[in-house]
Amino acid sequence: MFELLSRYKMDVNFCLLFGPEYWKGTARGQIKQYFDKQWTEGKKNKSTLTWYRQKYRRCANPHLTGDPSSKLLARCIAGDMQLDGRTALFKGDSPSCKLCAQSEENETHIVLHCSALKEEREEMMEYIREEWGPEESTEWNSIPEEDQMAKLLGISQEVSEAHIRKVKIFLVKAHKKKQIYNEVINGLDKKGGKKKSRERKGLNSL
User: How far is 8 from 32, CA to CA, in rounded Å?
Assistant: First the structure.
């Protein structure tokens, strides 16, 4: 009992003095406060809660409409695109990006840095920069990566439907490139180099 009182920072003397009624009334509040603190501290290091932690995050995103591209956007926001930086923890593989082999593969790398997606990224950013205007575009390179992601994904501010459509198109193209890579590698692994049909199937889906 004393161990529990100590853990939840309850006054031992008051519990002994006022008995069960005090214990019942105080325990609920103290236990809730204890686990709220555990949650707050624990979420600081969880990558999937990166943008959840932002105070200005909206409770609902009107651009998540249930179509396949919206599902990709939702996964990107949640940090759950099943990229190698995450799946390597369970598969024992390398966390490096298979498309460029330059960094750990995560959502930030794919959206902002992967050199294999440079053309697709430039196409997306060209439109978005025009929408932003000169001042906002100039400011873009000076803000932290986390804020860049929040801004692009429509988390930290209202964005137009056209803006989000460009982001969705980028994510779909990135996803397809990953699919093609995986199909080619699987083809090599399973058929000893006979990969043409798999590669053609992936390219035709672009």
Answer: 9
Supply the pLDDT for residue 62: 72
| Residues of the chain below pLDDT 50 | 55-59, 193-206
pLDDT of res. 112? 95
Q: By the 8 A CB rule, do 195 and 184 touch?
A: yes
Q: What is the dihedral of CA 90, 93, 96, 101, to 10 degrees?
A: -150
The structural domains of the chain, with segments of one domain joined by +, span 2-45, 54-204
The 3-class secondary structure across the chain, one letter per residue, is CHHHHHHCCCCHHHHHHHCHHHHHHHHHHHHHHHHHHHHHHHHHHCHHHCCCCCCCCCCCCCCCCCCHHHHHHHHHHHCCCCCHHHHHHHHCCCCECCCCCCCECCHHHHHHHCHHHHHHHHHHHHHHHHHHCHHHHHHHCCCCHHHHHHHHCCCCCCCCHHHHHHHHHHHHHHHHHHHHHHHHHHHHHHHCCCCHHHHHHHHHCC
Per-residue pLDDT, 119:
95
User: Is-above-0.85 flag for pTM?
Assistant: no
C-alpha span between 122 and 112 (Å, rounded) = 10
Amino acid (one-letter) located at 173 = K
Q: Report pLDDT for 65.
A: 79
